[in-house]
Amino acid sequence: MLYKISIQSHVTQRNNYSKARRSAGRRGAGGIMIVLVDLLLMLIDLTYSILAAVVQTFVRPRLKCIDGELCLITGAGGALGRLFALEFAKEGAHLVLWDCNTAANERTAELARELGVRVHAYTVDLSRRASIYEAAERVRAEVGDVSMLVNNAGVVAGRRLLDCPDEILERTLLVNCHALFWMTKAFLPQMKAKNHGHIVTIASALGLFSTACVEDYCASKFGAVGFHESLTHELLADDLDGIKTTLVCPYIVDTGMFAGCEIRKELRSLIPPLQPLYTVQQSMKAILAEQLMICIPRIMYIPFLTRALLPWEANLATYRFMGGDKCMLPFIKNVEMKTSNGVINSS
């Protein structure tokens, strides 16, 4: 608790100092002096942020209470979405569940209701902007204002770029990326009016670095990460400190979405696919701690950093050593076998 209070105190003092500095600038203070003060503030913030991150690694931060909050989860009929619904229900949040699969979504709703919370399930096609806006209007009229938005839904084509029909590629981008814009436009205004809310984006490690043969998925997740980060900057610039954001970037999760994907066999035990429950529990800790970003597992921070710091050729050598250049080929073969049945991989 002291850790959280110290952060809030630091942020408050910094904001007050910045306002005083801007006021001094308007009164005619020298431009060079203002730049030097800003530089000093930036270095203080930089040092403090690094130290706070180190402390947070060893000292568990205080987790916020979300009892009574209204939480909307997309893709609630899938493996991760169902687990998120149950975890939020355990924390006392009331739920609005969206999915295009009515039966799976209703099953999630049944399980969540057993935990004693109110649950409202809606069948929504996130690839259609009109479907999102219509469902959002129904939620506001029938349930109330959403205070926690978990953008969890995701799909992948699972086909080589030149073999994939355009409409399937477009669906990946619509669900994984474009829907984030529409969901935010639908629910952020109410959060801004109250300066209260939390927006969670379930992206992917493949939104931080890429791999071969899943161009649609990587592009959509890079877009999701970029959208989320820009939105976070906008909220901070508008001094809406009551609206929190959390970006979740997990490695491949063992939900069947990427069934068959394998790195080099000698290294599989080092980075195995994540268990869904573990992924959701780690995500929940970050959300309740109001952590801005989490990579799961922590080792995923390494390729994220090396991608920016090392030459392209150095990253490529590591990538090939790990078997990353061919890891999706077994997955694509599995999808090809299911194509005749009309199966679409989704989370």
Automatic annotation (TrEMBL):
Record's GO cellular component terms: lipid droplet; membrane
Subcellular location: Membrane
GO MF terms held by the record: all-trans-retinol dehydrogenase (NADP+) activity
E.C. designation(s): 1.1.1.300
Gene3D superfamilies: NAD(P)-binding Rossmann-like Domain
Keywords: Lipid metabolism, Membrane, NADP, Oxidoreductase, Transmembrane, Transmembrane helix
UniProt-listed SUPFAM superfamilies: NAD(P)-binding Rossmann-fold domains
TM stretches of this protein: 29-55
CDD domains listed in its UniProt record: 17beta-HSDXI-like_SDR_c
Alphabetized Pfam families for the sequence: adh_short
InterPro entries with a match to the protein in the record: NAD(P)-bd_dom_sf, SDR_fam
Recorded topology in the membrane: Multi-pass membrane protein
Domain of life the protein comes from: Eukaryota
Reactions catalysed, as given in the entry: all-trans-retinol + NADP(+) = all-trans-retinal + NADPH + H(+)
Family as reported in the entry's similarity comment: Belongs to the short-chain dehydrogenases/reductases (SDR) family.
Function: Catalyzes the reduction of all-trans-retinal to all-trans-retinol in the presence of NADPH.
Protein name according to UniProt: Short-chain dehydrogenase/reductase 3
Organism encoding this protein: Scophthalmus maximus (Turbot)
